[in-house]
């Protein structure tokens, strides 16, 4: 049966790849976006994930169009890199709000319908940086690491109602965002990956789709690395 899927930050990059994967499976896919609407064919809802009011409105729009959300992919996020001693407090808190607190907002809202249905899948997009660490990314690493503890707590709270909550931790992924880093930095990143290349966004989407499938019904509270071996041992 066609499932109702909501992907935050789904208009480009990993989020769009996830949207395309679920659509190919025949699901009814909605995506949130901030400034750039998704391609034609997807139900797009403008949403500021740092506002509970905006999140509520986005869910209401999706529910009116498709019904309750059955699969949530919390993917929206930002970076604001900088060395610790030069980082302003606002740079730290804004990244934590957009990456971690936003996941709390959308998970809390999605879980309402899932609890009534006694089923649901919640998938949070973290990063290899969450456990490996990265100089110049204390804010980003903290926000992405926080998702692990959050997801495992949600998994324990909601598991008895048939709701799973898992984390995907990508390594370097070929997207517009990483392309802007320049050739020298990209070569440096790739050299650190045992598989010797960056992931495609579709490779991340494949793991997300698996965690939402019937085959993953007994997986919850897991952190699944899709990082080419970059973070192994962590």
Bin the helical content: 40-55%
Mean pLDDT across the residues is 95
| Number of beta strands | 9
**Main sheet makeup:** 7 strands, parallel
CATH topology: Rossmann fold
If strands are numbered along the chain, what order do they take across the biggest sheet? 3-2-1-4-5-6-9
Termini separation comes to 37 Å
Structural class, from helix and strand content? Answer: alpha/beta
Shape: globular
Number of helices: 8
Radius of gyration of CA atoms, rounded to a whole number: 17 Å
Strand-residue fraction? 15-25%
Kindly give the count of domains.
1
What's the helix-strand series?
A: EHEEHEHEHHEEHHEHE
Low-confidence stretches: none
CATH superfamily: NAD(P)-binding Rossmann-like Domain
CATH class: Alpha Beta
What is the CATH architecture descriptor?
3-Layer(aba) Sandwich
Topology, please?
Elements: E1 4-7, H1 13-24, E2 28-33, E3 43-46, H2 52-65, E4 71-74, H3 89-117, E5 120-125, H4 129-132, H5 138-158, E6 163-170, E7 173-174, H6 176-179, H7 183-191, E8 199-200, H8 201-211, E9 223-226
Parallel strand pairs: 1-2, 1-4, 2-3, 4-5, 5-6, 6-9, 7-8
Can you put this structure into words, describing what you see?
This protein is of the alpha/beta class and 234 residues long. It has helices at 13-24, 52-65, 89-117, 129-132, 138-158, 176-179, 183-191, 201-211; strands at 4-7, 28-33, 43-46, 71-74, 120-125, 163-170, 173-174, 199-200, 223-226. It has a single domain (4-226), classed as Rossmann fold (3-Layer(aba) Sandwich), CATH 3.40.50. A 7-stranded parallel β-sheet has the order 3-2-1-4-5-6-9, sandwiched between helices. α3 (89-117) links the parallel β4 and β5. The model has no long low-confidence stretch (mean pLDDT 95).
């Amino acid at each position: 049966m066609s499932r109702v899927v909501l992907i935050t930050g789904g208009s480009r990059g990993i989020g769009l790849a996830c949207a395309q994967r679920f659509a190919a499976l025949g699901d009814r896919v909605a995506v949130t976006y901030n400034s750039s609407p998704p391609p034609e064919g997807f139900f797009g809802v403008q949403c500021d994930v740092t506002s509970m009011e905006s999140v509520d409105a986005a869910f209401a729009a999706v529910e009116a169009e498709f019904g309750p959300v059955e699969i949530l992919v919390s993917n929206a996020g930002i970076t604001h890199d900088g060395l610790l001693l030069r980082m302003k407090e606002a740079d730290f808190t804004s990244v934590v709000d957009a990456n971690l607190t936003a996941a709390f907002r959308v998970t809390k809202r999605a879980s309402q319908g899932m609890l009534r249905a006694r089923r649901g899948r919640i998938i949070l997009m973290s990063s290899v940086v969450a456990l490996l660490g990265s100089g110049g990314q204390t804010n980003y690493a903290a926000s992405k690491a926080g998702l692990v503890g959050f997801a495992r707590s949600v998994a324990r709270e909601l598991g008895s109602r048939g709701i799973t909550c898992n984390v995907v931790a990508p390594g370097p992924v070929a997207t517009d965002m990483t392309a802007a880093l320049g050739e020298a930095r990209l070569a440096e990143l790739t050299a650190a990956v045992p598989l010797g290349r960056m992931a495609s966004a579709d490779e991340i989407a494949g793991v997300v789709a698996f965690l939402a499938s019937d085959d993953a019904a007994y997986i919850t509270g897991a952190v699944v690395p899709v990082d080419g071996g970059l973070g192994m041992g962590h």
